[in-house]
């Protein structure tokens, strides 16, 4: 996507040819700064501290992290150490383990002197495939938006609610939930996006609103509690969210609060779609509620909030009564029965075991 007219991906090989450049998402929307990752330790730190975040992007970063490790030391111990360091950074999004696994399996049987070059090829292929996959998701989702448009009065926008950031910044380019939105906007279809702020880290307010704004897509930021009310009053035509892990039976794990949106959508007959690349599928798990590890993050993300003060400095302030306990589960699971459809690179499919198995039989490992 373009920022101030310049096309960017969210991650790329640095000019030196030896390191990786990312956009530091912990500074958004107040600053747009790049950061160079020169070692696997720095790649792991960037994922853990959420300088990069979003399931596909942490997978891509991990793949580059494997390349950085192989440049420093291509031996077996380094390979295994890098793989476990990267996988241990965040537990919920399966793309991370998926990317590390692809890289490790491509390298383990190679002579050490060939590993760095191969690791780079794998990382770049993962990035290019992510872009192509998201474009395919965008085209399939575009058809859904066109169908919604046909039900609107002339000139009225299609109102889409999204949660967290499953946008360009969560992937290498285009986003998953946002790809259909960008394609509709670019095709001249009037769209308007309700952006959930997404406490505690505010990825909606900080990231989704920023990138939609940069692309000129009309949008309105709402507090996380507003979605149900808007749906009850006919102000939402569809919900599109992303996924960090989708199970064999179609249960969807995504940012905390997604489940509540799905419940409200069901009650209000609003279609609830999940946009996901097949790298997010985990056929080894059947029950999302019991099988998916949910990341528990630092409680200070809940008890404090950071923002731009009127004097132009970024400040973090406390917002919870002193002494109160806080909990910070970062993801929740939306059962398949609440999902209208999965927007994948192979089309829009039912969130069910037979539909997933039919569409992605080649991805099931026996
Ligand atoms: O904690 P984050 O910011 O990494 O969470 C991101 C999300 O929950 C996204 O919706 C998900 O990763 C899908 S990204 C295309």
From TrEMBL:
Active-site residues from the entry: 244 (proton donor)
Biological process according to GO: L-methionine salvage from methylthioadenosine
EC number(s) stated in the UniProt entry for this protein: 5.3.1.23
Site positions (Transition state stabilizer): 164
Main enzyme class: isomerase
Source species, domain of life: Bacteria
A single GO molecular function term of this UniProt record: S-methyl-5-thioribose-1-phosphate isomerase activity
One Pfam family it belongs to: IF-2B
Pathway(s): Amino-acid biosynthesis; L-methionine biosynthesis via salvage pathway; L-methionine from S-methyl-5-thio-alpha-D-ribose 1-phosphate: step 1/6
PANTHER family (alphabetical): METHYLTHIORIBOSE-1-PHOSPHATE ISOMERASE
UniProt family annotation: Belongs to the EIF-2B alpha/beta/delta subunits family. MtnA subfamily.
UniProt protein name: Methylthioribose-1-phosphate isomerase
Organism: Pannonibacter phragmitetus
């Amino acid at each position: 996507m373009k920022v101030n007219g310049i096309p960017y991906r969210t991650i790329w090989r640095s000019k030196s040819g030896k390191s990786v450049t990312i956009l530091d998402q912990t500074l958004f929307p107040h600053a747009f700064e790049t950061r160079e990752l020169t070692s696997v330790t720095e790649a792991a730190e960037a994922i853990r501290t959420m300088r990069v975040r979003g399931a596909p992007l942490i997978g891509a970063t991990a793949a580059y992290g494997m390349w950085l490790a192989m440049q420093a030391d291509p031996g077996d111990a380094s390979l295994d150490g890098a793989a476990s360091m990267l996988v241990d950074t965040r537990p919920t999004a399966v793309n991370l383990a998926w990317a590390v696994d692809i890289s490790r399996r491509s390298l383990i049987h190679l002579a050490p002197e060939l590993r760095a070059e191969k690791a780079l090829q794998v990382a770049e292929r993962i990035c290019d495939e992510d872009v192509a996959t998201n474009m395919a998701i965008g085209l399939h989702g575009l058809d859904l938006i066109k169908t919604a448009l046909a039900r609107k009065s002339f000139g009225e926008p299609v109102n889409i609610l999204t949660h967290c950031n499953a946008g360009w910044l969560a992937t290498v380019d285009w986003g998953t939930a946002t790809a259909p939105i960008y394609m509709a906007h670019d095709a001249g279809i009037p769209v308007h996006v309700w952006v959930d702020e997404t406490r505690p880290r505010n990825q909606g307010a900080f990231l989704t609103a920023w990138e939609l704004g940069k692309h000129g897509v009309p949008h309105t930021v709402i507090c996380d509690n507003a979605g149900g009310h808007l749906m009850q009053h006919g102000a939402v035509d569809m919900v599109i969210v992303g996924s960090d892990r989708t199970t064999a039976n179609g249960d969807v794990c995504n940012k905390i609060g997604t489940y509540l949106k799905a419940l409200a959508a069901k009650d209000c007959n609003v279609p609830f779609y999940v946009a996901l690349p097949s790298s997010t599928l985990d056929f080894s798990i059947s029950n999302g509620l019991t099988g998916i590890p949910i990341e528990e993050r630092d409680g200070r993300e809940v008890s404090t909030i950071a923002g731009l003060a009127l004097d132009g400095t970024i400040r973090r302030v406390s917002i919870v009564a002193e002494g109160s306990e806080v909990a910070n589960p970062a993801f929740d699971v939306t059962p398949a029965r609440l999902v209208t459809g999965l927007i994948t690179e192979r089309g829009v499919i039912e969130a069910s075991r037979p539909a997933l198995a039919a569409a992605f039989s080649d991805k099931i490992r026996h």
